[in-house]
Write a structure and sequence with these properties.
Strand content: 15-25%
Helix content: 40-55%
Number of helices: 9
Distance between the termini: 56 Å
Number of domains: 2
Strand order of the largest sheet: 4-5-6-7-8
Order of helices and strands: EHEEHHHHEEHEEEHHH
Shape: elongated
C-alpha cells in the first residue's frame, strides 16, 4: 500500500492546511500521514512526500467545520494541541478528527479512546505552560507606551497568551516576542491581534526609566522574602528554571 505523507512547518496554520489537504486526498485504500518537517525526507520507496504551503483560508475552514460539527470543547482541544511541542501533534490531530467526524459528535469525553487521550495530553502540556506564562511574563514599556515582553517557552503558547492579554489589557497596545520561534504577537486596542514573523531586537528601545522600575521590583522581591523559609527545591517546582531567564527578579 502506498502511503502519502504530507509534511509542513510547525505552525498552527500550516498544520491545519495539511489536515485540509490530507482530508481532501483521503481514499479508503491509501494511508495518509502528516509530519512536521521543513523538507521532504524519503524514508521508503512506498511513500509519496507532499509539501504543504500554508493557507489561512484552508486553516479557517478546518476550524469552522470543527466548531459547527463537533462543538466548542473540541475546538478548544484542537487549539491547545496545535500549541504543543510534540513532533507527532499534526498527525495526532488528524487521527483525532478522522475519528470525531466519523462519529459525528463531540467525542472529547471518550477518555478510553487512544486518539482522544493523545489529544488531551497535547492540550494539557500546552495549556499548563500557558497558564504559568500568564504569571511569569514580564512587560517593559517601549516609546509610544507599547508594552513589550520577550519569552522563550517550550510550547508554542503565543496564541494562547495573545487571547488572554488582549482581553486583560484591552486598552493597552502590546508586543510579545517569542525569541525561540522568531515570532511576535502585536495588539492594538480596538483591533484583533496579529502575528509578526522575523527576529526582533528591541533592547535598545527600552528607556532608561525602565531600569529604575526594574530595580524597585527586584528590591520588593527581595524584601518580601523570608530568609528562614528559603526553599530552592520548592521554588524550582513553582517557578521552573527555564522561565527565569525572562523574569526581571531573577536577573
Amino acid at each position: 500500500m502506498i502511503t502519502k505523507v504530507f509534511y509542513c512547518e510547525d505552525r498552527p496554520e500550516a498544520i491545519l492546511t495539511a489536515i485540509y489537504d490530507a482530508w481532501a486526498d483521503s481514499t479508503p485504500n491509501r494511508e495518509i500521514r502528516i509530519n512536521l518537517r521543513s523538507e521532504a525526507v524519503q524514508v521508503s520507496f512506498v511513500e509519496i512526500q507532499i509539501p504543504v504551503e500554508s493557507s489561512y483560508e484552508k486553516a479557517e475552514k478546518v476550524l469552522l467545520s470543527v466548531s459547527k460539527r463537533l462543538g466548542f470543547r473540541v475546538h478548544r482541544l484542537i487549539e491547545g494541541a496545535l500549541c504543543a511541542a510534540e513532533n507527532d501533534k499534526a498527525d495526532a490531530i488528524f487521527r483525532f478528527l478522522q475519528y470525531a467526524f466519523s462519529a459525528g459528535h463531540d467525542v472529547s469525553g471518550e477518555y478510553g479512546t487512544p486518539v482522544v487521550m493523545r489529544l488531551f495530553e497535547l492540550d494539557r502540556k500546552a495549556r499548563r505552560e500557558s497558564h504559568l506564562m500568564l504569571g511569569f511574563t514580564r512587560f517593559s514599556i517601549l516609546p509610544g507606551n507599547i508594552a513589550f515582553a520577550k519569552i522563550g517557552p517550550v510550547n508554542d503558547v503565543l496564541p494562547l497568551l495573545a487571547d488572554h492579554f488582549a482581553e486583560r489589557f484591552n486598552t493597552q497596545p502590546f508586543l510579545i516576542y517569542d525569541e525561540k520561534r522568531h515570532r511576535s504577537v502585536v495588539y492594538t486596542p480596538g483591533e484583533k491581534w496579529y502575528f509578526l514573523e522575523g527576529e526582533l531586537d528591541l533592547s535598545s528601545q527600552l528607556p532608561a526609566l525602565a531600569d529604575e522600575y526594574e530595580r524597585l521590583w527586584k528590591r520588593y522581591f527581595d524584601s518580601v522574602a523570608i530568609r528562614e523559609r528559603f526553599n530552592p527545591v520548592c521554588q524550582r517546582t513553582l517557578c521552573p528554571l527555564h522561565f527565569r531567564e525572562y523574569m526581571i527578579e531573577f536577573k
